[in-house]
Amino acid sequence: MSRERHLLFEQGYLTGFKDLITTDQIMARRVMALVNSLASDPEPEGSIHLGGSLIYRLHIEDCRVMYEVTDDTVRVWSLGKVRR
């Protein structure tokens, strides 16, 4: 059973989330739910570990979340739209 980690949100994520709320509230809810779940499962299906670091990338449709995982913390760095 995995333990809950603390979630820390950096300004880049908060700014991106604020922008997303104004343009797509449904996607903002999906992102919020998935990011909150990182506390208990920091490596969900679809996450990509960027080798040689503690950084992960996670795509949620057209959004990309970048975050760092340590023993007791998930630090969410950024949220942005990506072109596909």
Structural class per helix/strand content? alpha+beta
Estimated share of beta-strand residues:
25-35%
Low-confidence stretches: none
Q: How much helicity do the residues have?
A: 25-40%
Count all strands and give the number.
5
Question: Helix count?
Answer: 2
Largest sheet: 5 strands, mixed
**Would you list the SSEs in sequence order as H and E?**
EHHEEEE
Amino- and carboxy-terminal Cα gap: 36 Å
What descriptive keywords fit this protein?
84 residues; 31% helix; 5-stranded mixed β-sheet; 5 strands; globular; alpha+beta; YaeB-like fold; 33% strand; single chain
Please characterize this protein's 3D structure:
- The chain is an alpha+beta fold and 84 residues long.
- It is 31% helix and 33% strand.
- The chain is built from two helices and five strands.
- The radius of gyration is 12 Å and the shape is globular.
- It starts with 5 loop residues before the first strand and ends with a strand.
